[in-house]
């Protein structure tokens, strides 16, 4: 992994030079160095493949166009890979995604993946919560479990295929079964038991280990939480997790500001305390204010939160090309452009060089 750049120097962490480590161990060391040094890698979902008013134009990125740098972390989603499809649920071709993952690695950046999958068997999308037996059947019913394992084999093959032209595996973060403390996904707390949820992770790891996946750093990311107990209730176990994160969004602009600040600080505080106790990396795995409706959001809201609660990385969601209101980073000409630049130029924020 080459150098990430930050105003504070952007020196390559010594641990990344370590050759005896597995690909995932090297990435864990890089993330640990970030956290220790009070730096936060900034991430953006689907950043180099489409933006607010463009799609699939090689080299473009809304973050690059507003800040002059690529985000230090690219976020991706593997939904539909489990079906054997060639494009993901938002239309991103998996071959293009792989090329961009390698490009991000070559420029010294990091990649993270979520998975908005379709259920094995019935193929219902992640947000369809009408059937609350899905997870139970995935880990207990032999026929459904076999289908789940097939999905996992496809994912394992994908991760194994992330190799540089020299044949070296590229380490990435994988954040499955996210926001499970909410009720909006069929793997959410309202829709499956604690034991069955943990079973999803167990099965996954068994298949990945069998398939020789050694380049995945595992991230656990509940939605906002009120207590350590809630955070840990469905934690699959230290052997399954490398990164402890949380997803907290800012809703309702100015009106929702205090709620966001309180929820994010509390959740990040819990994450940092537990990550410290469990020897894990702390991260802000998803956040953002849709439409960046507060002009100073990046430098006056997000930045102070990250300074008060240092974490290895913070990721904001996508700038959709086909939904004009659905974006999380300012694009060229947006009123927050300069504020965003101020944020990315801050000494704690880590970007990738061009
Ligand atoms: C959601 C929205 C959807 C998208 C999904 C998966 O937050 O951005 O439009 O399909 O994530 O990327």
Q: Can you describe what's shown?
A:
The protein is globular. Mean pLDDT is 95; it is low at 6-18. The two termini are 15 Å apart. The strands form two sheets. The chain has an eight-stranded parallel β-barrel, surrounded by four helices. It has a two-stranded antiparallel sheet with strand order 3-4. Helix 9 runs parallel beside helix 10. Helix 6 (194-210) links the parallel strand 8 and strand 9. It has 354 residues and is an alpha/beta fold. 35% of the residues lie in helices and 16% in strands. It has helices at 23-36, 62-67, 94-106, 134-140, 142-160, 194-210, 228-232, 257-278, 297-308, 337-345, and strands at residues 5-6, 40-45, 50-51, 54-55, 70-71, 73-77, 110-114, 172-174, 216-220, 243-250, 281-289, 313-316, 349-352.
Please provide a brief summary of the model:
The protein has 354 residues and is an alpha/beta fold. Helices cover 35% and strands 16% of the residues.
């Amino acid at each position: 992994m080459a150098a990430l750049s930050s105003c504070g120097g952007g020196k390559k962490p010594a641990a990344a030079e370590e050759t005896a480590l597995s690909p995932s161990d090297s990435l864990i060391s890089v993330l640990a160095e970030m956290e220790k040094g009070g730096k936060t890698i900034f991430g953006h979902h689907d950043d180099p493949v489409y933006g607010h008013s463009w799609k699939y134009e090689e080299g473009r990125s809304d973050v690059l166009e507003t800040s002059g740098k690529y985000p230090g972390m690219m976020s991706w989603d593997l939904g539909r890979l489990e079906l054997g499809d060639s494009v993901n649920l938002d239309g991103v071709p998996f071959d293009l995604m792989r090329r961009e993952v390698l490009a991000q690695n070559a420029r010294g950046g990091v990649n993270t993946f979520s998975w908005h999958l379709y259920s094995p068997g019935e193929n219902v999308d992640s947000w369809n919560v009408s059937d609350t037996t899905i997870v139970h059947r995935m880990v207990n019913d032999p026929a459904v479990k076999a289908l789940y394992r097939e999905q996992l084999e496809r994912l394992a093959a994908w991760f194994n295929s992330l190799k540089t032209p020299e044949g070296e595996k590229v380490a990435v973060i994988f954040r499955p079964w996210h926001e499970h403390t909410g009720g909006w996904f069929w793997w959410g707390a309202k829709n499956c038991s604690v034991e069955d949820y943990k079973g999803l992770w167990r099965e996954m790891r068994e298949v990945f280990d069998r398939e020789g996946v050694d380049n995945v750093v595992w991230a656990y990311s509940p939605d906002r939480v009120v207590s350590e107990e809630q955070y840990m209730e469905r934690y699959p176990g230290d052997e399954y997790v490398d990164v402890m994160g949380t997803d907290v969004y800012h809703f309702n602009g100015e009106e929702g500001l205090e709620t966001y600040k309180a929820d994010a600080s509390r959740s990040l505080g819990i994450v940092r305390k537990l990550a410290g106790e469990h020897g894990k990396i702390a991260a802000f795995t998803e956040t953002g204010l849709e439409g960046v409706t507060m002009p100073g959001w990046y430098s006056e809201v997000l930045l102070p939160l990250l300074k008060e609660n240092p974490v290895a990385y913070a990721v904001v969601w996508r700038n959709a090309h086909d939904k004009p209101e659905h974006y999380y980073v300012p694009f060229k000409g947006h009123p927050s452009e300069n504020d965003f630049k101020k944020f990315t130029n801050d000494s704690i924020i880590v970007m990738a060089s061009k």
